[in-house]
Design a protein that fits this description.
The chain is an alpha/beta fold. It has a single domain (3-109, 117-155), classed as Rossmann fold. It has four helices and six strands, in the order βαβαβαβαββ. It has helices spanning 27-44, 57-69, 89-106, 119-128; strands at residues 3-10, 50-53, 74-76, 110-115, 139-145, 148-155. It has a six-stranded mixed β-sheet, sandwiched between helices. Strand 2 (50-53), helix 2 (57-69) and strand 3 form a beta-alpha-beta unit. The longest helix is centred in the first third of the chain and has 18 residues, at 27-44. It is globular and about 45 Å long.
């Protein structure tokens, strides 16, 4: 069995004019995405990843330019959205587990997702046991070899 890689990207800085809305990125977030695109181009060169994204606008505005720069499109995956107000903890955990099983058994060698600051640390801990926070526009790579998962790469700021 070969190596599979899951790349988890936290959305860039969001526009906070009205936090109750599903608004997009701030100017700071747009700048973070420009740096993220350059970083992703170097990390993903020669791969054929699938790109999956939370339905939130800030995630789409983060992942869209990365996928486009590499000549790919992204798909929305509802399982990647943040913890909903009306969603109990058991359902939230089950949704994350469902996505991680999907990744393990159905996704290609390289999968890139864009999600949220609450979702990503839970996924990292479930896969590796590591307790890691991730900053906005942060990049985390998890490698799966057989039944073992490893935290392979964590970048909190792109230069």
């Amino acid at each position: 069995m070969g190596v599979k890689t899951l790349i988890l990207i936290r959305h860039a800085h969001r526009n906070m004019d009205d936090p109750s809305r599903d608004n997009g990125l701030s100017d700071k977030g747009q700048e973070q995405v420009k740096k993220l695109v350059k970083f992703a181009r170097n990390r993903l060169e020669g791969t054929k990843p699938v790109f999956l994204c939370s339905p939130k606008k800030r995630c789409q505005e983060t992942l869209g330019p990365v996928a486009k720069d590499l000549g790919f499109k992204f798909e929305i995956d509802e399982r990647l959205t943040e913890h909903g107000i009306s969603e109990n903890s058991a359902l939230y955990q089950a949704r994350i587990d469902e996505f991680l099983d999907f990744w393990k058994y159905e996704c290609p060698e390289v999968t890139v997702i864009c999600s949220h600051g609450d979702w990503i640390p839970v996924a990292i801990q479930k896969l590796t046991g590591a307790k890691v926070g991730i900053k906005k526009s942060g990049w985390c790579e998890i490698e799966s070899v057989g039944v073992e998962n490893f935290l392979a790469w964590l970048v909190q700021k792109h230069y």
